[in-house]
Amino acid sequence: MTEDDGAEPASAAVQLQELLLDTEDVDTFLHQVALLASDGVVPGASCGITLRRADGPLTVASSDALAARVDEVQYGFGDGPCLTCMDTGEVVLVVDVAEDDRWSPYRARALEHGVRSSLAVPLAGRGRSTGALNLYSPRPSAFSADHVGQAERLARQTALAVALAVRMSEKAELTANLRAALTSRAVIDQALGVIMGQNRCSPEEAFDVLRSASQNRNVKLRSMATEIVQAVSGRSPLDDPRFV
Questions:
Q1: Is beta strand 117-125 parallel, antiparallel or unpaired with respect to 92-94?
Q2: pTM, 2 dp
Q3: Domains and their CATH numbers in the chain
């Protein structure tokens, strides 16, 4: 990614949109983002993506094993540039791990893993920090001001794309639940029609009959309804209501 003509932010957005459309789930999308960041911001860097969870931070994607290990070191100590970035919502740049005396326990382990500089950029959603995009390099001073800007833009677009993917997933689940509820209702209505015809009774009385049979047999209402329809018609009830 370059900043030669100001087209880079739009290009990054397009790349992420294409990734989101081409991947089947959020996990795969985030893995591709990690690869995009490691190749596109500073070639040769490692990237880990941390999301805030109720039970603690979690690396949900990484470009390689090194990024995941260095992220985990910070979780173990409960301190480090990634966690500071998430807590403050601010960019955390480490120019040279060997000369930066912040997060002392983490620093020693990071150097053991060959990390000399790092960059943590917040992933923000709904006005709060939801995670961080973490870049690690084996070279000191690997991240310039331009690289920081590129990483920030990528993080912003990633956070928006993740929020969109989660919202789409939630709506898909809601639609599936609604469809299941309507399908159950359709099967029950078919069974009520059978009971009404056989007993010359009202819909309310037919429902009481169905409910009593369900309770006596200790089976779900829909299962009882399915049995009734199958017994009369010799085939499974209509499972795909035309109005769904």
A1: antiparallel
A2: 0.63
A3: 8-171 (3.30.450.40), 173-233 (1.10.10.10)
